[in-house]
Structures are given as structure tokens and as C-alpha cells.
Amino acid sequence: MRSMIVPLTRRYWNVMLIKRQQLAGNWSLPDRWSIIAFLIAGLALLPIAIILRMLVQPAPDVWQHLWATRLAEFLSNTVVLLIRVGLGTTLLGTALAWLVTAYRFPGQRLFDWALMLPMAVPSYVLAFVFMATFDYAGPVQKALRAWFGSSAWFPSIRSGGGAIFVMTLTLYPYVYLLARAAFHEHGRGTFEVARTLGVTRLQAFLRVVLPMARPSLVAGLSLVLMEVLTDVGTVRFLNFPTLSDGIFRIWHGMMDRDAALQSAAVLLLFAFGALLIERYTRGRARYVQEGSRGHGLAQVPLTGWRALAATLVCSFVLATAFLLPVSQLIQWSVHELWHRMPEGLLAIYWRHVRATLILAGAGAVISVLAAVLLAYGTHLSRSPVTRLAARGATLGYAIPGAVIGLGVLLPLSWLDHTLNDVTYQWWGVLPGLIFTGSITGLIYAYVVRFMAVAHSSVEASLEKISPGIEAAARTLGARPIRVLWHVHLPLIRAGMLTGAALVFVDVMKELPITLLLRPFGYETLALWIWQNVAESLWSEAALPALTIVVADLLVVGILIRSATLRGRHSIERT
Predict the structure, then answer these.
(1) Contact between 403 and 271 (Cβ < 8 Å)
(2) Which residues 6+ apart lie within 8 Å of 300 measured at CB?
């Protein structure tokens, strides 16, 4: 008996020792990656924390001054824009998505993907094209005065209504894309069951399909509200100042640092409010679709005036939001290249393109690198604290660019002054503004703002990898860094490239951060547009605007391809 117990006891302790070593290894290795995740999260949250700190610092004199000047106007305009653009994009995006998903009419297959194209036109680009076209000195009002006399009336494009109209046209694709996907995902079973209960097609849509698509609609609406809050170019061009624009007016016009920071803190509260509403609404909505999933809705053919009306509505939206402005940009660009000296114009153009490519390339590469480290650290740790850190690190996309710009400017300015004081005291040397006087601050702010875009793409690719592949590599003694380099990176390459492309284009058209942090004399394509529009030089602004639109079209093409592949099966089955 003893001869049996001793070997069993030794075997038991050997097994326990192995398990203890494995457990220690499993805890020690992820901790290192968790530290990396926490560092990335800390750097990403630092600018937000600095602006949040302004809310707890009493500044009654600053608030009295703000209320006595234009803060009330900034607040009211922001609220009006959020409500009306949010309502307009939700109605337009949902209606168009239901139209192309549930019905068949002339051009339906074309409009199904073409209605995503307005996403490629930044709202401030559409704003200045509409200004040149519909303003008092534009061709439309000139024609109206020629036909109906000098008293002919036309609504002013430089107004709140103009800003709402422009933003609705450029931002509705966020709702359209997600609503369309939701309508395709819901099988015809649920919809047809509702029809068998005696309700009409419209009633079935309102009572069954729309509630089931609510999480997707709220997600699209939240993206719209974030874009509205961060916009500076559209509201400045169309003379409808909001909180984001107010921060720039206070910073550059009044030179009041404290007032600008307090305004940024208020804008940050708006962003948090929109984010909390989105999380609360989507968190409470849990809808499950059973049966006939992926077959899509049965499309009803439209005939007669209904088919004509559907085609005209889709054509009007597509033409107004994409075809006409892009055609105008092409016409202006050709005119500039033809009538101005091509050599001089192209030299200026390539200088701006080179500066933009440097910023966009650096921002994309660093954002993807940080996203990979963050996603892999979360993947290894599986700790709720690490996941919370990752969520905090990707909060920047919900924060307006003006807030992030000021939040980055303050600590980097402190670093610059501290570094100059230390080097002067020790060596009598002043190195200058290393951080705020170079593109370092710009790239840092871009990464904080857009790392969430890269992270979502990388994380989605990482989750598709089979756990068995990683387990096989770990059983061979490979450390996590080797598994990441040799196993995961080749498998998530497509997701990394997609994330890099999305960040690249976002940086190209980013205006608020670039306005606040660019070094003196450093000009990008977005700033070139800003300067030319400020002087009403529409033709000069066309070439950089067209470049941004073309680059944006590449990313929209990726989205269209993905959405078309998801919806093709359901369309063919119907």
C-alpha cells in the first residue's frame, strides 16, 4: 500500500507544481501587457482629464464674462443643431434604407450602394460649394433676380437652416449604412408573421422592424451627433457659431485661455451626454431574431407613379449631396489648372499634399501600432480592469477635436517650458518649442482622437482567430511577443490595413485639431481649404477639397464593398 501511495503522492505534487508554474506564468506575462495597455490608456485619457479638471475649478469671473458675451448663443445653436440634424439624418437615412431594402424600383440596385457616397464629402466642403452656388452672388440667386426681378426671395444659405441642410446631407449615410444592414439582417419571417396578423406593410415596419433595428439606428445617430459636436468648418462658413467654433473664436479672437478651457469643458459634457444616451439606449435593447436569418425582406416591386417617385427621391438626394458638388469641384479644379500657371499651382499643391501625407501616415501608423498593443494586451489579460482601460483609451473618437486639441496643448506647453528652464539653468541652452513647435503635438492629438477607429478594426480581426492556433503556439514554448509577431500579425493584416486607411483619411480631413496645434507655417490640405474659403476663393479651394474627396472615396469604397457583400445574398434570394 505504501509503495502505491508514495508514487501517487509524488505525482500529485509534480502536477501541482506544474500547474502552479503555469498559473504564475499566465499571471506574470499578461501583467506586462496590461501595463502597456494602462500606459496607452493613460496617454489617451490625459487630454480629456485635463479638460475635465476645469469643471471642478471655480472660475466665477470667467463664467460671468462668458455669459455676458456669446456663450448663450453658442449653447443654443449647439442644441438646435444636435436636435435638428439628428432628427433629419435619422428620418432621411432610415427612410432611404427601408426604400432600397424593402422595394424594387428603377435604379434600386444602383442606389443601394450609391447612397453611401455622400459620406466621402466632408461637410465643410459641401458647405463652401453651396455657399458659392446659392449665396447672394451665386449663379442661382443671380438667375432668380434676372427672371423675377431684384425682389426675388431665396433662403440664405449662411444661416442655421443652411448648416442643418448641409450636415443632414453629409451625415445621413451613417444612419443609412447601419439601418440598411439591420434591415438586411432581419429575416422575412418576423416581418411576414406581422403581416399575417392583419397589419399593413407600413404598420409592420413601424411596429416590428423599426424597434428591432433601434440599436443600429441609435449607433448611427450617435456617430452623427459626435460629428456635429466636433464640426468647426461648416458652422464657421455658414455663420452659425456653436461651442466648437466658439472655442476658436475665444482662443484666437479674445486670447482668453481660461474662457476657452471652460467652454471646452462644457463641450465635453455635451459629448459625454451623447455617449451616455447611446450606451443607455443600446444597452437596454436586446432583440433576437430567430429563423430565416439572412434571407432578407421580400422586396415588393413598385410601379407607376410610386416607382417614379422612389427613383426621383433617391436621385435628388444623391445628386444634391454628391454628384453636383463633386462636379463643381472638378470644374473649378480644371479651371484653376488651365488658367493659372500650372507649375506654380502644382508646386503649392504638392507642398500641401506632402505635409498632409506626413501627418496622415504618421497618425495612421502610430494609431494602428497602439491599437495592436492595446487589443493584444486586453486579449491576453482577460481582466475587467484591462478591458476598462481599453475602453477608456478608445474614448477619444467621441470627444470633439477642439477639446482634444486644448487638452494636448496644455501639457505639451508645460513640457516645453520645463525643458527650456532646465536646459537653460544647467547648460545655458534654449532648445525651443520641441513639442508644440513641431508636428509632435499634432500626431499625439490625432492618435488620441482616432485610435478608436484602428482599435475596432484590429480587435474585430483578432477575435476571429481561433484560440487553438494560439494555444498550439504557446504549447511549443513561444512567448506572447513571438506569438503576436509570427502568428497574430499575419492573420490580422487585413484589419490593420483597414484601420490604417480609415485613420489616414480621418487625419487628412481633420480641421479643429490641425487649426489649434499646427506649427507656424505648416499647411495641410484642410487648412488650405480653410484659408481660401475665408477669402471667398472658391476655385482655389477646389483642388485640395477634391483631393480629400477622392481619398475619402477609397475608404467609402471599402465600406460599400463590405456592405454589398453582406447584403448580396439577401437581395438575390428575394
Answers:
(1) yes
(2) 102, 103, 104, 201
Radius of gyration of the chain (CA): 27
Instruction: Tell me which residue has cell 422595394.
Output: 103
- In angstroms, what CA-CA distances link 53 with 58, 264, 543? 10, 11, 42
Cβ distance 125 to 548 under 8 Å?
yes
The one-letter amino acid at 9: T
Which domains, ranges and CATH numbers included, belong to the chain?
28-51+340-534 (1.10.3720.10), 70-138+154-334 (1.10.3720.10)
Interval 29-62: pLDDT, tens: 446 778 888 899 999 999 999 998 887 776 667 6
Which residue's C-alpha cell is 508554474? 21
> Residue 313: CA atoms inside 13 Å, Cβ hemisphere, count?
17
Q: Which amino acid is at 405?
A: G
Please, are residues 443 and 510 in contact by the beta-carbon 8 Å criterion?
A: no
CA dist 554 and 120 (Å) reads 9
144, with CB counted inside 10 A (0-12, 13-18, 19+), is middle
**Alpha-carbon span 192 to 173, nearest angstrom:** 28
3-state percent helix, strand, coil for the chain, nearest multiple of 5:
80, 0, 15
Helix (H, G, I), strand (E, B) or coil at 438: coil
**What is the dihedral sign for C-alpha 513, 515, 518, 523?**
positive
For residue 345, how many C-alpha atoms fall within 13 Å in the half-sphere facing its CB? 16
Q: What is the DSSP string of 177-235?
A: HHHHHHHHHS-HHHHHHHHHTT--HHHHIIIIIHHHTHHHHHHHHHHHHHHHHH--HHH
Assign 342 a pLDDT band (cuts: 50, 70, 90).
low
**pLDDT the model gives residue 564:** 66
Nearest to 235 by CA among 96, 424, 81: 81
Is residue 444 classed exposed, middle or buried when 0-12, 13-18 and 19+ CB atoms within 10 A define those classes?
Answer: buried
